[in-house]
Amino acid sequence: MTIFNERIKVFFIVILSLLIPVNLNGKTLETKPDNYDRIYLGTAFVSLLSLHYLRMYVGPENPHIINPLGIDVSARNSLLWQNSTQTASFLSDLGVVSLVSGAFWIPALTNMPYYNGFHIIAESAIYSGLLAQLVKILTGRQRPYSYYKTRESNDVDKNYSFFSGHTSIAFAAATSGGLLLSEKYSQYKIPIFLSGYVIAALCGYLRIASDSHYLSDVLTGAVIGTSIGYGIYQLRKSWISAHTSSNENEKTFSLSKKISF
After folding, report:
1. pTM of this prediction?
2. Of the candidates 182, 145, 180, which has an alpha carbon nearest to the alpha carbon of residue 161?
3. Where are the domains of the chain?
4. In angstroms, what CA-CA distances link 215 with 27, 42, 144?
5. Parallel, antiparallel, or unpaired: how do β-strands 27-28 and 23-24 relate?
């Protein structure tokens, strides 16, 4: 087992969401988090942790999906790091951490209130991981290292190949972070997204190189992660707009009452 895992990757995000500073680099929180917002993200995180632990007990002991697709076999034969699968796995962990850590610094570089920018990336990562855990339990696909017996596979985790949580989280963070940055730095939109997606794609490649996933697991994770990152970004922006409009209406109404008196 490598140093990093799904729990560590998102743990520091939730801690920061509960202890978010009022000011970062002179940037005031224009939209402060309420208790409901914190409970909402915290519940999602607890659910992710619970699934990660419970899957060892509720998951299938025998795989539901065994035989790999032809394209998966070809990709594995080409991309597998024969004697360095653990190294590849460790590097994929670092890649995911590097992207998700954008939740800390990317919001400080944007026009959006820090807490909301942080929430966009944090939610994207957590919900991507949560969905991945659910699908892994339901599908029970045998991992390539178990199918090909390249290393010991006595744990239940050997049947959680579909889809790649690493890849999903990486693309979710790259998408949400890229959208936030490109909003302010539109002239650098291409290099912003290119750098994020290159790291995310590298994470996917390393999941195949480590013999942890097949190509189809990685491609599915990339599509789902990108979709969740984009969806969370749009939903949070809509919420901010509605919240801002509501506050402005309240201020206008309060001002009009004072003037009338």
Report:
1. 0.82
2. 145
3. 6-104+111-244
4. 42, 32, 10
5. antiparallel
